[in-house]
Design brief:
paralog of FGE (formylglycine-generating enzyme); 381 residues; OB fold (Dihydrolipoamide Acetyltransferase, E2P); 4-stranded mixed β-sheet; binds calcium ion
Length: 381
């Protein structure tokens, strides 16, 4: 079995991406300040971006004090790839270029993929720690699962991501939909997610808040999540893929970050810090990736909290007991052949059983027609 150190090296070397989009005019060669990229890098222990790095396929020099990137052109969208290191939190910067500096107008984490090699892991309730404290029968038995290589989006799919699906006519093109999904969509005359307006109020006592572009899309049924993934050339992750990405570090963790519960680590009912918006008791989602400690060993964000996530499996309370006998690994399990409810994984902003439902082994079932304000999804390839 390969170690996750190898995954990390591969992921960061091949996929570490930050994008600087800006409106620029002028010289053939100019300097763009990336001080804001630097400022937002949450972990001060992380190094200055390695030099040289690639910008839109070209190697350019990264200058320090202050950190900035030398660019050879002054317009359009550029992509910054780290050559061999972690740029920190991956961000999109958009801003106004005045000829000497960039004034950001938007920062958001890039929803790039984490790449997983073939992995053997232990799925289900570990019987230890918080799994023992809060476990449920349908999380048993713990069983070995062997997964083929796959990619998974680092963050939940955002409203900006989903807007592109809408703008591309995704709701009008049957080719992006399953047969069942298309029937559901047309019979209910669905043209956009529920809770799609940017300003929302989600609690009896909650304040109005704004879902910006980099908040997770919510209010999508399983069929809409599935259609988005098909349109984007991907698919929903399987339940096994989701759980491995959330908790496996060579050992199963209770939560993405480890075995100890801290309600401030993720967007759940109990946290008070609300780094992605809101405040104590805030009835709302948060910007994806805003809770920096809600990060799995593999680098996926918000797998404990923010929104719960559709996976592709039909739900069965006894499915884990249907695997191979004799302790053999179950290869790429896809879930039951059919059912009446789909599996949803991970906790969310409205979960008030905070330490329980945010566990990485926790499972929930939900009608595929359901369009909830606390359920979104991420995309696999
Ligand atoms: Ca919260
Ligand atoms: Ca989540």
């Amino acid at each position: 079995m390969r170690k996750f150190t190898a995954i990390r090296r591969f992921t960061f070397a091949a996929c570490a991406v930050a994008t600087l989009s800006f409106f620029a005019r002028g010289e053939a060669s100019t300097f763009v300040s990336i001080r804001d990229l630097n400022r937002i890098r949450a972990n001060p222990a992380q190094p200055v971006p390695p030099s040289p790095i690639k910008v839109a396929g070209r190697v350019v020099e990264v200058l320090e004090n202050p950190p900035r990137v030398a660019l050879s052109d002054g317009s359009g969208t550029i992509t910054v790839l780290s050559a061999d290191g972690n740029l920190g939190e991956f961000l999109v910067l958009e801003g106004d270029w005045d000829g000497s500096s960039l004034t950001p107008t938007k920062n958001e984490m890039v929803n790039e993929d984490v790449v997983f090699p073939p992995t053997l892991f232990m799925m289900g309730n570990s019987g230890k720690g918080k799994d023992a404290d809060y476990g449920y029968q349908h999380e048993l038995p713990q069983h070995p699962v062997s997964l083929a290589s796959f990619r998974l989006s680092r963050t939940e799919v955002t409203r900006a991501d989903y807007q592109r699906f809408i703008d591309a006519g995704g709701y009008d093109d049957f080719k992006s939909w399953s047969y069942e999904g298309w029937l559901w969509k047309t019979s209910h005359n669905i043209t956009k997610p529920a809770y799609w307006d940017s300003v929302q109020i989600w609690g009896l006592f909650g304040d109005a808040f704004e879902q910006t572009d980099n908040f997770p899309v919510v209010g999508v049924s399983y069929w809409e999540a599935d259609a988005y993934c098909r349109w984007a050339g991907g698919r929903l992750p399987t339940e096994a893929e989701w759980e491995m990405a959330a908790r496996w570090s060579g050992q199963p963790r209770s939560y993405p970050w480890g075995d100890n519960w801290d309600y401030e680590n993720c967007n759940n009912w109990c946290d008070t810090a609300a780094p992605g918006g809101g405040g104590p008791g805030a009835y709302q989602t948060a910007r994806v990736g805003a809770y920096l400690l809600d990060k799995s060993y593999s680098g996926c964000m918000d797998m404990a909290g923010n929104v719960s996530e559709w996976v592709s499996d039909w739900y069965s309370a006894t499915y884990y007991s249907m695997g191979p006998s004799g302790g053999a690994a179950w290869n790429n399990p896809l879930g039951p052949a059919g059912g009446t409810a789909k599996v949803v994984r991970g906790g969310n902003w409205s979960d008030n059983l905070c330490a329980d439902t945010t566990r990485s082994a926790a499972r929930k079932s939900l009608s595929p027609d359901s369009r909830a304000y606390n359920v979104g999804f991420r995309i696999a390839h």
